[in-house]
Amino acid sequence: MNHTEKLDLLCKSIKDKVAKKAAVTFEKSSVSHFVPNPDDPRFKREKINIRDFNEILSIDTENNTCTAESGVTFEKLVAATLEHGLIPKCVPELRTITIGGAVSGCSVESMSYKFGGFHDSCTEYETVTSDGNIVICSENENSDIFHLLHNSFGTLGVITSLKFKLIKAKPYVKMNYVVKNTIEEYRDFLAESMSSNEIDFIDGIVFGPDHFTACLGIMTDEVPYLSSYQGTEIYHRSVQTKNQDYMKIQDYFFRYDHDCHWLTETIPPLTLKPVRKLFGRWFLGSTNLIKWSKRLRYIMKMKRRPEVVVDVFIPGKNFVPFLEWYKSDFSFYPLWVVPYRYPEVYPWINPQFAEGMGDDNLIIDFAVYGKKNNNPNLDYSKLLEDKVYELNGVKTLISRNHYTEKRFWEIYNEPAYSDVKKRMDPAGLFLDIYSKFNNQK
After folding, report:
1. Contact between residue 305 and residue 374 where contact means Cβ atoms under 8 Å apart
2. Is residue 299 part of a domain?
3. Considering the entire predicted model, what is its pTM?
């Protein structure tokens, strides 16, 4: 089917669902990158099939743009754009994150310190409302919808295609790993690195209370050797032992995928080379690990609470206070660090809340992957959520949430969201964003 035929079929399917008057969820060809929750009510909801929206529609090498369907994975996208010497301005670290999911959520990565999130490179979305109508939105057309679709997690309609900007690329990446021993030194070094015109990629890994590593990448045409972290070698462990490294650029983009950052550390046999060599094709990689966690969701119900897996966005001004608190009260490592400079305050953030975020448009994505949460007297998931709020940060909604409705709308812009919701979801087919995630407790 071509794109128009897929679109017609989707609009008809949505109109059929309206008659059932039930909340729906989307059925994609790739795995969902929400943190698996055995009690997730989405398992029981009506499904809207968007599996076929997975094609790249065009790559414009004159204007350095791409138009693609929402279900295209970044693995597929990078392979296609690299054939033209181009890459997206932001490539999330897991292979099967989709471009539509990157907009509906908050995907950032190591180019975000200068380009923002993936959504900040987008110029146009094609969407379908809950009554089966097609809406095109951009900065100049339906701009309020365009901005509110970011971080809406499918609650404002179905994104079916996107147009976004590309930049020129080189085939390899040279990595430099720089270690600092104090939080202040680390903050200052990252700030210095972000002001450099020589560096293409910046992220970091905190390995302990006095071990802070900055990972700096530079695109290059030639390399003395190549490393790969798609087999028995483990990327985050190599960062602890090397000062430099070299990778193909596509291997760099997905360097964390094979171990889903370091979640394999929670299953020690998966870190052993013989096991990885013999069974890696079935167990390693974010897609395999997510699929297995879903298959075992009934066993997961036996845990007091699932592990803490979440990204939190902390204003740059609170970099030191957050890490000081983290060291004393949370203390789980490694911790992923991604500097993220946004062009302006996003309209989905409550303006009053945004006033406390600072005026330099810099936030730091701190990502926690796998902290055990079985203390009967303390829920680390809620502890982290409360601290993020205290520091005027924003927690992504992909895992367990504990917000009261009052606190939630202190962070999110309820008037703006409600206005767009009425126009995009007149049939009430999609849950509102608070209701959808309040059920994830």
Report:
1. yes
2. no
3. 0.92
